[in-house]
Amino acid sequence: MKIVFRLAWRNLWRQPRRTWLTTGAMIFANMLLVFMISLQFGMYSLMIDNALQVFTGHMQVQAPLYNDEKKMRQTVPNIVPLANAIREELQSDKVAARGWAFALASSDDRSFGIGIYGVEPEFENNVSNIPGLTSLGRYLGDNDAAEIVMGSVLARNLHVEVGDEITLMGSGVDGSFAAAVVNIVGIFDSGVTDIDRNIAEIPLGFFQDTFFMEGAGHQVVVFGDGLAAVPELKSRVQSVLPGDSDLVMLDWDALQPGLKQAIQADMSSAFFMYFVLVILVSFSVLNTQLMSVLERTREFGIVMALGLKPGKLGRLVILETAMMGLLGVVLGVAAGALVTAWFTTNGLAFPGMDEMAAKFNLPARMYPQINALTLLAGPITVFIFTMLASIYPAVRLHWQNPVDAMRVA
Amino acid sequence: MSAVRCVDLCKTYRQGDQDIKALDHVSIEIDKGGFVCLSAPSGGGKTTLLNAIGGLDIPDSGEVYVDGQRIDNLSKGDLADLRLRQIGFVFQAYNLIPVLTAQENVEFVMQVQGVATSERNEKAKEILKEVGLEGLENRRPAEMSGGQQQRVAVARAVASRPALILADEPTANLDSKTSDGLMELFTELNENHSSTFIIASHDQRVMNYAKRLVRMLDGRIVEDIDQRAA
């Protein structure tokens, strides 16, 4: 090992307590960053999965501009054969066709304007958690049956129960009058009031008959093996789309821009807090290195007198800081990984979280998501700022005169 | 050619309201292989002259030549290079690097010079043996006596065979026996390696060992004696 490395390492341990205090601050900050970022990413993943599992999916095939305008006539023709072809291409059942319409739902004594999804009962539970949230009655069965499931708030507002009949009135795809009488087979409770008050689902075949869709629908929802696989998913789905069609593929962040914005806003505030933490640690390092340089002024004067250039001395100070920083990164990442790994297995729960999570069909515990990014992003930032903090003490040596330095007691 | 030549050096320090003339039109020429003692009472200017010769301090006026090269107008970096390659320093307070062992202290300058590991290792061991510190190579300064530390400092100064060795009060912290030992070592190194020694000291023993004695007072040379002739 070069003498300079040995010198730097031994210099670090001249004041072991001070070095450990500073390194300890780095280890703690790194550990905290690893855990918090992992937990945050785990939470985002849960938020995204939960939001996408209601209706959105990882991606959808739609008619152009349908996502912005939601017009009844912006349809995907022959939607069921297209969904079948996508299922075959992906070798996955996580694909379902849907139609969407507005209608007036009327019970014996009340009427409300609602949104109605026409869904494939056989596949809908693979792309949406609404079937699993059916708390009264059952979910849809036959693709052509005149039956409906609706949100709990809507059922309450209409004063209806499972087994009752309601009337649906709306406009067909061609602008003609559409009407049907449907039997309520189930009531779902998503925990999201807007959905429970405004949404109902009927079988796609029945939807197409009622709204004169002639085999068309409005969206094919696709789920893949996670968000990272979405680009590949899109290219495979693209290969199945009819060559002459102008259908578009929209991924989850185009379909749910609000979700991405909410995550970005949360990330911004969290990363501001992390930045404050990193700055505090950097000042601790700056203080340590500055003290270390000041108390070695005489020694630096000697080595300058021996012929060492201030630049090389500065590099020595930077090397010492790098060693301390690396120690902080290695131990901090190790400690952070251990703590995070434990919570990855056992989860993290707050008092009262169980009931709330159950209401939203979420797991009762939060699980951090550990990967290279969550492990290294924070500690590398701490390391970079630590190195920046060493610049001033190192540069300071450039102004040092050896004779003056050697006069310091 | 002379090892060192100083021409009309002046250096003034400001102390409070007073200007102190540390060097007052000093001119001196020292031959290669010389063994010179600069003697003066405290504040007489000997350390200032030594620092000017070593490129540690820049005179207000005058010229300094080391091995024929004018050095008083060199940049900081060039002066550092000059000290690294041509000058060895021995200080009053030993000034070893406390976290390095005796051998590492001796090797340090050679490493900065870029000497290969095996060569500097061998040289360091050899020179430590020469100064009588065989077996103490792995001791740190705190584990050695003052005399031993000063010998390490000498070993460090001569390890890379500099042409010029400057020593500032090298015996000030040593007892008489150790001082004699050190001066004998200096004499031996001066004769064996033909290095030029300039020693600033007001220790009579050091003056006795010097081949040439230069007495200074209030920043001026007042006496220059060739002791070989005496």
Layout of helices and strands:
The complex is a heterodimer of chains A (409) and B (230).
Chain A: H1 3-12, H2 16-56, E1 59-62, H3 66-69, H4 79-90, E2 95-106, E3 111-119, H5 121-127, E4 134-137, E5 147-151, H6 152-158, E6 165-171, E7 177-188, H7 193-198, E8 199-203, H8 204-210, E9 219-222, H9 230-238, E10 248-251, H10 252-255, H11 257-295, H12 297-305, H13 310-346, H14 353-359, H15 372-389, H16 391-396, H17 402-407
Helix pairs in contact in A: 1-13, 2-11, 2-13, 2-15, 11-15, 13-15
Chain B: E1 2-15, E2 18-31, E3 35-39, H1 46-53, E4 61-66, E5 69-70, H2 76-86, E6 87-90, H3 102-113, H4 117-130, H5 146-158, E7 164-168, H6 176-193, E8 196-200, H7 204-209, E9 212-217, E10 220-226
Parallel strand pairs in B: 3-8, 3-9, 6-7, 7-8
Antiparallel strand pairs in B: 1-2, 1-4, 4-5, 9-10
Oligomer: heterodimer
SSE pattern of chain B, N- to C-terminal: EEEHEEHEHHHEHEHEE
Question: How much beta of chain A, percentage-wise?
Answer: 15-25%
CATH architecture tag of the domain at 2-95 and 162-226 in chain B: 3-Layer(aba) Sandwich
From N to C, what is the helix and strand string of chain A?
HHEHHEEHEEHEEHEHEHEHHHHHHHH
Strand content of chain B: 25-35%
Q: How many helices of chain A in DSSP terms? A: 17
Major sheet summary line of chain B: 6 strands, mixed
Rg calculated over all Cα atoms of chain A: 31 Å
The main β sheet of chain A shows up as: 6 strands, mixed, barrel
Helix content of chain B: 25-40%
Question: What is the CATH fold-level name of the domain at 2-95 and 162-226 in chain B?
Answer: Rossmann fold
Q: Which stretches of chain A are poorly predicted, pLDDT < 50 over at least 5 residues?
A: none
> Low-confidence stretches of chain B at least 5 residues in length (pLDDT < 50)?
none
Question: How many structural domains in the coordinates of chain A?
Answer: 2
The first-to-last residue Cα distance of chain A is 31 Å
Based on Cα principal axes, name the global outline of chain A. elongated
Q: How many extended strands of chain A?
A: 10
